[in-house]
Amino acid sequence: MLPTSDIIGWLTQSIRQIERAHWKPARDTTALPSGVTALDSLLQAGGIPRCGLIEWLSPSPGSGTMTMALTLARLMPIRTGVWVYIDRHGDLHPTALRQLGINLDRVVVVRPPDPRDVLWCWEQSLRSRGVAIVLGDVERLPQAAARRLQLAAETGGTLGFLTRPIRMQTQPTWATQRWIVSPSPVTNENTDRGWRLELLRAKDQWTGGVVNVELSDDKQHDNKSNEHLSGVRLVSQLADPTTPARAA
C-alpha cells in the first residue's frame, strides 16, 4: 500500500490534469472601470475583472456592504444579461434595488429553500453565459466549493460579487479580488453614506491600498468627482416586508 503522502501527491496531480483538460478561459479578461477612478487606480489591471469572484468583507450586517456592491455593479459597464441575486435570508426588497437605479426587469431573485442549495445556485448561475453578474452573501465557503465557483465564473465569463463576514479574511481565497468594506464619515454635504475600501488581494498584484468612496444623491456631481458614487439615491428605508418579491 502506498504511503499517505504519495496518495495525496497523486491525487493532487490528477486533479490538476483534469482541470487543465476541462478549463476554458473566459473570452475577454479585460478589466472593467468601476466608475470610481480612485478605486481603479489601486488596481494594476485598471479596474474590476470582467469575470471571476470579488469578495467584499463586511464588519457587520448593517454596514451597507451590499449597497456599495450593488452601486458599483450598477455603475460598471457589465455585459448584457440578467442579474441574479441569491437571497439566502429572504430579506431583499425590489424597492431597494429600484432606488439604487437598478432595472428590475434584468433582476432574478433566487431564494433557495434549503441552505445546502445556496452554493449550487451560485455555481449554476455563474456558469451561465446568459447571466451578467451574481450577487449575494456567503458565509461558509469551503476551499473546494470556492474553487468550483471561481472556475464556474471563468467558464461562464460571469462576474460574482460575494459579501462575507470580515472574520473570513484569515481563510485562503480563490477570489480574483478581496476587499474589506467599512463605513466611513462623509465629507460632502451632498452625500449620504461613505465607505472605506481596503484592497487585500488582487490577482497578479502584490500591493494593496485604501480608498474612501461616498454615495451621492445629487445628480449634479455625475462624472465630476472620481471619489463619489455619484447620481445614486441611498435607500433610507426598505420596502414594507409584505411587498412581494420576485422569486425564481
Helix-strand blueprint:
Layout: H1 4-22, E1 31-32, H2 37-40, E2 48-49, E3 52-58, H3 65-75, E4 82-86, H4 94-99, E5 107-110, H5 118-127, E6 131-137, H6 143-156, E7 159-165, E8 177-184, E9 191-202, E10 209-216, E11 228-229
Parallel strand pairs: 3-7, 3-8, 4-5, 4-6, 6-7, 10-11
Antiparallel strand pairs: 1-2, 8-9, 9-10
CATH class reads Alpha Beta
Number of structural domains: 1
What is the name of the CATH superfamily?
P-loop containing nucleotide triphosphate hydrolases
Q: How many helices?
A: 6
Please, what is the oligomeric state? single chain
Which topology does CATH recognise?
Rossmann fold
Summary, kept brief:
With 248 residues, the protein is an alpha/beta fold. The protein has 6 helices and 11 strands. The protein has one domain: P-loop containing nucleotide triphosphate hydrolases (Rossmann fold, 3-Layer(aba) Sandwich).
Describe the structure.
This protein is an alpha/beta fold and 248 residues long. The chain has a single domain (25-247), classed as Rossmann fold. The protein contains six helices and eleven strands. The chain has helices at residues 4-22, 37-40, 65-75, 94-99, 118-127, 143-156; strands at 31-32, 48-49, 52-58, 82-86, 107-110, 131-137, 159-165, 177-184, 191-202, 209-216, 228-229. The strands form two sheets. The protein has a nine-stranded mixed beta sheet, sandwiched between helices. Helix 5 packs parallel to helix 6. The longest helix is centred in the N-terminal third of the chain and has 19 residues, at 4-22. The protein starts with a helix and ends in a 19-residue tail after the last strand.
